[in-house]
């Protein structure tokens, strides 16, 4: 099978009947800033659950397999990004994360003076007043995160992470809040920013800030905000990080490029995403990775649970929230039948969608066949499908 995916899609002329494109790849600035524009299709980022409104030009997100540590985002990246943050897309976000106070929507959190109930202003979030609602979401998340909660119970007396100064950059959601607060309970000092400009649950960020975590994040950050938040976590008088917890590699990249002295003193990096891991391998190959790094993406719990089962759940949530249409009978092509692809296909099949799969790996292609999916070339179905979902990862030659 030829590894031709989005290139074929991009070559299509603009048409009102163009399929909806759902891109599952990556999560950080890297994937946003490398976005290319297509003249056909409707782009949806699942991690963000944002719908980019139809128009003559739509944005498609690409994995950043070509991204190098030596490069910073370009102006072009900024342009594509700003187009993707439409008012309507922020309005349409209707999850638990939708608790917003429209009266202060216009004011950038960077312009606001906010303090938590203890008088600290060591944070920058959308609205600290949302903290109580965020706390309730965190408490619900805790009920499903028994491993972290039992770790807290077992070890918070000993403070095994005392001395750890962790700078983190992940999605800021109720679940990651449970992680951050566990690290704090075990003795770490944490400063946190968001790895994705859309996915921050503002009320959760507020709850973290109220609890004393130095969090710098809000939903709908600009490119400048994104790097500003990261910088506020790293560049602090009298405090120097000695560990990095990253999802996508942007924070690592920032510290490596801007603060080489801090980077040299880092004791360890934990990287969550396939994209960030790839960038670390590049750095290592170039002999520039002077810090031990842990590849979380390759852990069995990430691959076999997060990538498979979490995407199996979130695909439908993302599609429903952004389109609000029925998927029974819809024709969908899923590009890539890895862990994410398998989860997406299973969920869509269960809804009654007609699912096609493209694959370049013969074993995965055979697995798709054995699971009852039609394995095709994208060019065979691209004109008839309603939805295109890409989950090819970095091996997709920039396609996914
Ligand atoms: N949005 C999310 O919540 C989320 C969660 C996990 C992973 N991801 C992203 O999803 C992507 C896929 O992750 P995964 O764990 O399934 O990776 P994977 O390596 O298990 O699967 C990718 C599959 O795509 C196939 N492939 C590669 N190039 C192709 C091409 N040109 N045409 C057709 N098939 C091709 C590969 O053979 C492989 O089977 C990654 O970019 C990852 O970062 C997103």
Any key phrases for this structure?
disordered C terminus, alpha/beta, Adenosylhomocyst_ase-like_sf, Rossmann fold, 16 helices, 3 domains, binds nicotinamide-adenine-dinucleotide, one-carbon metabolism, six-stranded parallel sheet, 15 strands, S-adenosyl-L-homocysteine hydrolase NAD binding domain-containing protein, Ado_hCys_hydrolase_NAD-bd, globular, single chain, NAD, seven-stranded mixed sheet
Give a verbal description of the structure.
InterPro entries: Adenosylhomocyst_ase-like_sf, Adenosylhomocysteinase-like, Ado_hCys_hydrolase_NAD-bd, NAD(P)-bd_dom_sf, S-Ado-L-homoCys_hydrolase_CS. Residues 307-400 form the S-adenosyl-L-homocysteine hydrolase NAD binding domain. Keywords: NAD, One-carbon metabolism. One of its GO terms (biological process) is S-adenosylmethionine cycle. Residues 73-121 are annotated as: Disordered. By secondary structure, the protein is α/β, with parallel strands linked by helices. It has 3 domains: 6-65, no CATH class; 90-301, Rossmann fold, CATH 3.40.50.1480; 318-390, NAD(P)-binding Rossmann-like Domain (Rossmann fold, 3-Layer(aba) Sandwich). Helices cover 39% and strands 14% of the residues. The chain is built from 16 helices and 15 strands. The strands form 3 sheets. It has a 7-stranded mixed beta sheet with strand order 4-3-1-15-12-13-14. Strands 8-7-6-9-10-11 form a 6-stranded parallel beta sheet, with helices on both faces. Helix 12 links the parallel strand 10 (268-271) and strand 11 (293-295). The protein is globular and about 60 Å long. It starts with 5 loop residues before the first helix and ends in a 10-residue tail after the last strand. Mean pLDDT is 80; it is low at 1-10, 26-100 and 396-400. Bound molecules: nicotinamide-adenine-dinucleotide. Nicotinamide-adenine-dinucleotide binds next to helix 12, helix 13 and helix 14. Nicotinamide-adenine-dinucleotide (NAD) binds at residues 3, 5, 24-27, 46-47, 63, 273-275, 307, 311, 314, 335-341, 358-361, 364, 391-393, 395-397, 399.
